[in-house]
Amino acid sequence: MTITQENFKQKAAFAALDYIKDGMVVGLGTGSTVAYLLDALSDKKMDIIGVTTSKDTSKKCRALGIRVVDIDTVDHIDVTVDGADEVDSYMNGIKGGGAALLMEKIVAKNSNTNIWIVDESKVHSVLGTFPLPVEIIPYGSGKLFQKFEDKGYQPVLRVDNYNNPIVTDTGHHIVDLHLNYIDNPQELADYLERQVGVVEHGLFLNIADVVIVGGEQIKINTRR
Ligand code: 5RP
User: Fold this and answer.
1) Domain that holds residue 147
2) Quick check: CB of 131 below 6 Å from ligand 1?
């Protein structure tokens, strides 16, 4: 990660502040780009109610004094701001690089507006450069793995520094599919959703309403 890239992430995060007002229920994504947003919300002492997408974000919020409530205690989420690993020309994306895709998708699907903040290196015309994270149930995961291998998806089980499978905040494993080029994201999403043992996948299709891209200039793309 270069200094410039970090600066572009920060710019995108700051631009998202325009969409957040005091009193709002705000979904708070996961990752290094969102971390800049959390810092800014805390610096500005914004009076928001946060709904987090990971234990990591909850921990950061606690340290910064940002109020967090359980998703089931709010009747709506006004706006969610999250990062993404890759975004295409249709504002579809791949998420889950930080292993938080399940909670991120639950929060996103229950939000009135979804805003993604990314640096310009994440924008590609077609998805697939970033390996697609798939969250799976540990039981029988070898069978699922074999299925993905037979399909030519080049699955890789995500492991920690001790070579143990990583365990997500909700107790699952992650397999990353090395696809390079996803020519029909909807078809792939449908296929993955049909597989027993798949809890959720990192294809976020038709979810983002606004994508803020940090670069030398800020670009804001809105779903029409
Ligand atoms: C976590 C995610 C993140 O939003 C994604 O990985 C982007 O992270 P970063 O802002 O650190 O590049 O999907 O599961």
Assistant:
1) 132-199
2) no
